[in-house]
Amino acid sequence: xxxxxVEPLLPSLRExxxxxxxxxxxxxxxxxxxxxELLDEASDELEPQDVWEPRDMNETCLYIFTSGTTGxxxxxxxxxxxxxxCMNFYELVGASSSDVVYLALPLxxxxxxxxxxxxxxxxxxxxxxREKFSASVFWEECGAEGATVFQYTxxxxxxxxxxxxxxxxxxxxxxxxxxxxxxxxxxxxxxSEGNVTLFNYTx
Length: 203
Description:
Elements: H1 3-6, H2 10-15, E1 20-22, E2 32-34, H3 35-41, H4 49-52, E3 60-65, E4 75-79, H5 80-85, H6 89-92, E5 100-103, H7 110-123, E6 126-129, H8 138-145, E7 149-150, H9 155-161, E8 187-190, E9 197-200
Pfam family, one: AMP-binding
Catalytic activity: a very long-chain fatty acid + ATP + CoA = a very long-chain fatty acyl-CoA + AMP + diphosphate; tetracosanoate + ATP + CoA = tetracosanoyl-CoA + AMP + diphosphate
Transmembrane segments: 107-129
């Protein structure tokens, strides 16, 4: 669904030797690789470990986009080591495999993709993915999905507090301390390009 934003850039991307992969069947212009067809053809058998195991955990695993705090959003390098470390994120904040994590953050960003989805894989938790955050249906969906953990970034909580009060906002596994009921809140701060993360364990 985001391919339209990339399509005007294809000529310059080709000049720079950048490959464009799209998860979908297409059709797409020449030089764009539709991954769905390759996934359909791929074998279920695992390749030998030396094929997929990185030679150096500090090598680039993937690129994600920063939020643009220090300018326009830009690609940031994430190492294999940092990706693996993200698998421990939810364990650090006290979540477990019995939790259901409600995630409405963009998956092109580190908070959504690595801390969110990869974090769920790390503890074996259920991940409820929502395409876009909606304050008006948030509590209803959390109740319906049995959510026990909600990963947020700053403004999402403000959007929830600014909503008019409604009956179902306390009938779920999540809550906020005053208006929405008692809850353990653990906050972290880190930067995509940084090597230090801060945790507020005390609330």
